């Protein structure tokens, strides 16, 4: 074999697709949903492997163009992870990730930030400097990626022992975003089964449950994989946290529409939020623009204000009046 830089990077940093399979992770099987959710996880790994092999060049763009549009957000999540990892180990070019999110990956900026969080979890990186460089309003999504990483790959201590990194545990906002990532991972861990999800979340401390439910709503909408009846059951079982599930669902709809790859069937958003996905996206777009790219508003992180406004809209406009 002829070794070049790309080959070496692939061999040193590359991940096997089997590493994210349910069997390898010890997740309970879900005979209807498992193929879909494993495909999602493997698409993230494929994006990661492509990024660490090619870096930020035409080969990466060509590979991305071959990915099915419905899955390309997950591929971008993996690319964000890979480029951020590559920058960490590079001696010269340490800005591939930032060029990516400001350039070809701009539409998938949210997913790329989550991917950087995956890399931060793998390599135990501080996220504080990242927040200084990232979007003032949405750079905090790196914490979602960190939460997802620990729940997906360090399940026992994160999901069963409720462990939280010391850098996150003393900041309520950081913990909210971290818990949202845990909720996203629980969708995979429980194979989209509403009853198992509700049981798993009920074991967490009460103050952490709302934002974990929000992460579940996001994954149920963005990754999908279950029937409408299960989505309705998920909404019922979430109980007092149903508005948080709706919040996550709205964020997923916004993320997909922003990137130009919405689901053809928006029934999950209609069930959980009570409005069409495009309408939910348009509200979120207006709400994020109203932040005027500020990091803080009246002493709160602007993303917190954004989420508060989302919940007010869901509650006032639809949530009390409709049940799809």
Write a short abstract of this structure:
This protein is mainly alpha-helical and 324 residues long.
Short descriptors:
19 helices; mainly alpha; 2 strands; globular; 324 residues
- What's the number of domains? 1
How are the strands ordered across the major sheet?
1-2
First and last CA, distance: 58 Å
Strand content: under 5%
**Would you tell me the overall average pLDDT?**
93
Separate helix tally: 19
Identify the overall geometry: globular
Oligomer: single chain
Please give the share of residues in helix.
55-70%
**Unreliable residue runs:** none
Tell me the major beta sheet. 2 strands, antiparallel
Radius of gyration using CA atoms only? 19 Å
Tell me the structural class. mainly alpha
Compute the number of strand runs.
2
Descriptive overview:
With 324 residues, the chain is mainly alpha-helical. The chain has one domain. It contains 19 helices and two strands. It has helices at 5-13, 22-25, 34-54, 58-65, 72-89, 96-102, 109-122, 128-133, 142-153, 155-160, 166-169, 172-189, 194-202, 209-222, 228-238, 242-259, 267-272, 277-289, 302-319; strands spanning 296-297, 300-301. A two-stranded antiparallel sheet has the order 1-2. α3 runs antiparallel to α4 and α9 (142-153) packs across α12. The protein is globular, with a radius of gyration of 19 Å. The model has no long low-confidence stretch (mean pLDDT 93).
